[in-house]
């Protein structure tokens, strides 16, 4: 299940909600009870796994063969 970030239109409080994509997107602010809007996030970061990347992995081919 994804985590959604919300911002209160009344007090500006930011909070996260962990819920199913099928659930309604309407949330109320836990601080003041005001109306909220969903914030579009930056997405998730890239996770590199393995032994690493090396310059030789992407070395250009010699054009003077």
Structural account:
- By secondary structure, this protein is an all-beta fold.
- The protein has a domain at 1-43: Rubrerythrin, domain 2.
- 0% of the residues lie in helices and 23% in strands.
- It is built from no helices and 3 strands.
- Strands 2-1-3 form a 3-stranded antiparallel sheet, with no helix packed on it.
Main β-sheet, spatial strand arrangement: 2-1-3
**Which series of helices and strands comes N to C?**
EEE
**Which ranges are low-confidence, i.e. pLDDT below 50, for 5 or more consecutive residues?**
none
- In round numbers, the mean pLDDT is 80
Provide the CATH architecture of one domain: Single Sheet
- What overall form do the CA principal axes indicate? elongated
CATH fold assignment of one domain: Rubrerythrin, domain 2
CA-based gyration radius:
22 Å
In angstroms, what separates the terminal alpha carbons? 53 Å
What does the largest sheet look like? Answer: 3 strands, antiparallel
Name the CATH class of one domain.
Mainly Beta
- The proportion of strand residues reads 15-25%
**What structural class should be given to the helix and strand makeup?**
mainly beta
**Helicity range:** under 10%
Number of extended strands:
3
- Tally of helical runs: 0
